């Protein structure tokens, strides 16, 4: 099966100002029709076995178990839940859609990411480039033919550069952690849900019902999801005209949306394209979460392979 990129770009373009990604979402349009094979979801994978415990001796994603990271992580979610509001997300999307902060290649960004510490993650305290390569290499072993998925894995967390001064030096609560929609009720499955009580949207009747400002099946592209590294990297990839398939862009954009991909919350907002792409996100999530370990990848050895993928799917320099 194939899809026409122009069609996808137009579909997304019609949602301008409605929680979509703004008016210049369709750079690809200029190139006319580009036929991209839509990746088929393979029946099953082999190799990678998800470990039962993380590097700190706990189950993965234990947000309440006492550990050296627990308090910091909980405080992170307290701030995240208080400050991420519908208006805040709208403002951030507008600001960062300008892509006027930096010009650099994908690989340069991978290297920059090493400066970033993620305070939201109970399972990881390794430099971020290790996580990128661990995820990508684990995916590559099980899905050797899906090179777009290897590259998606490599770049999925690059948006964390938002916390660096050159990108506005955003606080952690606006960069990392799980994401959730704004403009409708906060689902109970969201980590440390109790802190929403101090969020103004929680008390706003326009925003605190099941559907809130949305209609059933309106499509996630119409939904304001909390601002952070996911949506930023999606904007960067899309607006710089990446050739990644829509499943790759969906993974980048929603990989932290655990309430949806782990708990099935907000499923009523998805449209058919979201549902198809969610299958790939489920596959990806296993590698993103469970490849986090102390095992280092030899960067110099794998670098040429990833540089070739970057060249295939991205322009040499991107606007950030
Ligand atoms: O703490 C982690 C980390 O910030 C990841 O990059 C993000 O994707 C996860 O959803 C989050 O739980
Ligand atoms: Fe992430
Ligand atoms: Fe990740």
UniProtKB/TrEMBL annotation:
Keywords linked to the UniProt accession: Ascorbate biosynthesis, Cytoplasm, Iron, Metal-binding, Oxidoreductase
Catalytic activity entry: myo-inositol + O2 = D-glucuronate + H2O + H(+)
GO BP: any one term: inositol catabolic process
Keyword Ribonucleoprotein: no
GO MF, any single term: inositol oxygenase activity
Main location: cytoplasm
Localization (cell): Cytoplasm
Superkingdom of origin organism: Eukaryota
Cofactor requirement: Fe cation
Cofactor, free-text remark: Binds 2 iron ions per subunit.
Residues engaged in binding substrate: 61, 118-120, 160, 177-178, 255-256
Protein name per its UniProtKB record: Inositol oxygenase
Organism: Kalanchoe fedtschenkoi
Lineage summary: Eukaryota, Viridiplantae, Streptophyta, Embryophyta, Tracheophyta
């Amino acid at each position: 099966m194939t899809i026409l990129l122009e069609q996808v770009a137009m579909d997304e373009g019609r949602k301008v100002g409605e929680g979509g990604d703004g008016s210049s979402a369709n750079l690809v349009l200029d190139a006319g029709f580009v036929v991209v094979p839509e990746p088929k979801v393979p029946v099953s994978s082999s190799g990678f076995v998800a470990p039962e415990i993380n590097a700190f001796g706990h189950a993965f994603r234990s947000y309440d178990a006492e550990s050296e990271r627990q308090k910091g992580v909980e405080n992170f979610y307290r701030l995240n839940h208080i400050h991420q509001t519908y208006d805040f997300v709208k403002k951030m999307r507008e600001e960062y859609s300008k892509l006027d902060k930096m010009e650099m290649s994908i690989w340069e960004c991978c290297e920059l990411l090493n400066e970033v510490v993620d305070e939201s993650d109970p399972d990881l305290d390794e430099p971020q480039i290790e996580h990128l390569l661990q995820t990508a290499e684990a995916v590559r072993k099980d899905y050797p033919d899906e090179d777009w998925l290897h590259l998606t894995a490599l770049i999925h967390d690059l948006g964390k550069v938002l916390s660096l001064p050159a990108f506005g030096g955003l606080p952690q609560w606006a960069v990392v952690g799980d994401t959730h929609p704004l403009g409708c009720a906060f689902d109970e499955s969201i980590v440390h849900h109790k802190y929403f009580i101090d969020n103004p949207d929680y008390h706003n009747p326009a925003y605190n019902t099941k559907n809130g400002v949305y209609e059933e099946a309106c499509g996630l592209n119409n939904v304001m999801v909390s601002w952070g590294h996911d949506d930023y990297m999606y904007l960067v990839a899309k607006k710089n005209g990446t050739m990644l398939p829509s499943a790759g862009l969906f993974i980048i954009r929603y990989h932290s949306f655990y309430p949806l991909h782990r708990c099935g919350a907000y499923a009523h907002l998805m449209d058919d394209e979201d549902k198809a792409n969610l299958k790939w996100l489920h596959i990806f999530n296993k590698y993103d979460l469970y490849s986090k370990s102390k095992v280092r990848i030899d960067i110099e050895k794998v670098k040429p392979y990833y540089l070739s993928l970057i060249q295939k799917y991205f322009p040499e320099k991107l606007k950030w």
